[in-house]
Amino acid sequence: MEQKKHNIFILPENLANKIAAGEVVERPSSVVKELLENSIDAGANKIQVIISSGGKKLIQVIDDGSGIIENDLPLAFERHATSKIQSEADLDAILTLGFRGEALPSIASVSQIEIKTKDAASKMGLIYTIDGGNPDKIRKIAANTGTSISIRNLFFNTPARRKFLKSDAAENQQIMIVLKRFFLAYPEIEFHITIDDKQIFMLKPASLKERIREIFGPDVCDELIEINDGVGGIEIEGYIAKPKAARKSRTHQHLFLNGRPIIDRNIGYAIYQGYSGTLDENTHPVYCLFLNMDTNLVDVNIHPTKMQVRFANDPTIFYLFLNSVKKALNDQGVLADFSGIAQGSAIQKVMMDPQISADENRPPLLLNTKEIHSLHKKGKLKRSSQQMSLAYFKSDYETKSGQESLEKQSTFIDESNLQKPDVQFWQLHNKYIFSEIKSGVVIIDQHLAHARILFEKTLKIFENKQDANGQKLLFPQKITLALDDFMVFKDIYQVLNKIGFTINVFSGNTIIIEEMPADVKIGRESQILMDIIDFYKNIPQGDFKYHEKIAAGYAYKNAIKSGEVLNSFQMHNLVDQLFACEYPFYSPNGKPVITSMNLDELAARFKS
């Protein structure tokens, strides 16, 4: 019987290295990154980088680090060989930059390498060459302590990859992006950079601020604001620049985790949120920030380049960056205080980009009356006949009631001496309020109606110079918050105090609630605060502006709920306040508050 041929093969080592090179070595800048990491891990105080033809012909890195001993030199070019990890436990406590053990063998498989090295204890140095993955013998030479590694003719034996390299200028630009990250991450290290026989940088050891001046220029340096903040063993330090130094690109944005350059979208978004309202259109903030934290709380081994990481406590880190940036800008007078939020009318402040709403038949979030009318004129918002009939209900309701507006009174005051209004209301399932109108029946969602009332009321407080008065608690409430909740509290407590709360930090993550807004129900003091914090954390970040988000959270969490029984006067007062709103038709997040059914629709239902 004829034996079948194999369809699955074990790849030769050299071919496997070339495939791995595609993951680790994308272009010359990738080689520069890997070699610099090795030099820094070796304890170098001075590093020289020499580039020729965009790194295609030559990449040479010379350092004064610890060097490599003879027995380790060939091992350095074996796959999965590393001095950084010895056990599985080490994966959770990686402090070095390079550790995967794939970079050098991958680079060696697609280039011609010459490495000269000497450790401090040896009298002679060593030279070792590898041509396309084929090693030569180790020879002894005279050398200084440290390592010099030259990478020549990158991708010479993989022409398909070499042809995808860009021009020399484009590759040099990518190399400079990588180099600048290391310049900023390690200002204590001296760097000499030569490109095509021209010395580009000669950086002496310096402070971070001075190094930023050398890299970004004096105009940016003069606008720097220092940040030094932290919570629960997580620390941020470094500099952000004032909004006037913002750039049209993100090339001046640098983030480091335990000295390692990283890219993290959530942190980037938190930083932008901190700048909210201060940047011109299509500009980007400048920052150089260092995040230092326990290595057990982060996984840096999720991508070969190690630029992407995974955090164990994303919310805490998000709010730490948001709060730190906002506080730094506020301390410098860049952010307006909350007493100045409304510069002009309410119409200027209750706004949201119309493009956010995907439903053209529904108004965008937080639109005001003027903007709604503007959308009507542009044909972007269709007003149904049900909504149009509400004008009749409003005039009919106001004519019949003959009551003085109760807008300034609490929604739920049940005054026995009030005359029963002529307009009749009734509840359906303790959720919807029904009333007869000239053309049919109107239906109001009591929870969303009250949320709209409280939302606009809160926004008006932000417009005023004076804080709202709160009611003092007979027994102040002490609450110990979780770390991420405490970060949210730090971000919003000044605004909460403005609308009637008085909350102070007791110690650590423990806070004390001393006063609450007058319309918060007794017994819900701590719960309403936690509800607002949860709302602030969980609502999509782009749905609300900062102060609107807090106002919406307070409104939704303090509004009457579906299932609560309302008497006639409470329903009357709720409707009265709703129609005193600037825009009563929709809740803060765009849900309909009011709908109606006319007599023709009812007749059609009964086929009459």
Number of domains: 4
Radius of gyration over C-alpha positions, nearest whole angstrom: 33 Å
Strand content: 15-25%
Reported CATH architecture of the largest domain = 2-Layer Sandwich
Q: Care to count the β-strands?
A: 23
CATH superfamily of the largest domain: Histidine kinase-like ATPase, C-terminal domain
Explain how this protein is built:
- The protein is an alpha+beta fold and 608 residues long.
- The chain has four domains: 193 residues, Histidine kinase-like ATPase, C-terminal domain (Heat Shock Protein 90, 2-Layer Sandwich); 123 residues, 2-Layer Sandwich (Ribosomal Protein S5, domain 2), CATH 3.30.230; 131 residues, MutL, C-terminal domain, dimerisation subdomain (formyl-coa transferase, domain 3); 108 residues, Ribosomal Protein S8, Chain: A, domain 1.
- The strands form five sheets. Strands 1, 2, 3, 4, 5, 6, 7, 8 and 9 form a nine-stranded mixed beta sheet that branches. A five-stranded mixed beta sheet has the order 10-11-14-12-13, sandwiched between helices.
- Helix 1 packs across helix 3 and helix 14 packs across helix 17.
- The longest helix is centred in the first third of the chain and has 18 residues.
- The protein is elongated, with a radius of gyration of 33 Å.
- The termini are far apart.
- The relative contact order is 0.08.
Which short descriptors sum up this protein?
alpha+beta, Heat Shock Protein 90, formyl-coa transferase, domain 3, 23 strands, five-stranded mixed beta sheet, 34% helix, Ribosomal Protein S5, domain 2
